[in-house]
Design a protein that fits this description.
By secondary structure, this protein is an all-alpha fold. It has one domain. It has three helices and no strands. It starts with a helix and ends with a helix.
Length: 61
C-alpha cells in the first residue's frame, strides 16, 4: 500500500508541474485570480474535486 501511495503522490507532483513548466505566465495569472476567490467558493471547488477524484477512482477499480 505504501508503494502505491508513493507512486500516486509522485504522479500528482508530475501532473501539477506540467502547466507551470509549459505556461509560466498563464500560471501566474491563474494563481493571482485564485487569490481573489472567497473561501466558501474555494472550499466548494476543493470538495467537488475530491468527490470527482473519489468517484473516478471507484469506477476505475
Amino acid at each position: 500500500m505504501w508503494y502505491d501511495l508513493g507512486v500516486a503522490v509522485c504522479l500528482v507532483l508530475v501532473i501539477e508541474g506540467v502547466i507551470p513548466f509549459l505556461y509560466p505566465r498563464r500560471w501566474k495569472e491563474l494563481v493571482a485570480m485564485l487569490a481573489t476567490i472567497d473561501d466558501r467558493s474555494m472550499r466548494l471547488m476543493g470538495l467537488g474535486s475530491m468527490l470527482i477524484g473519489t468517484t473516478l477512482l471507484y469506477l476505475i477499480n
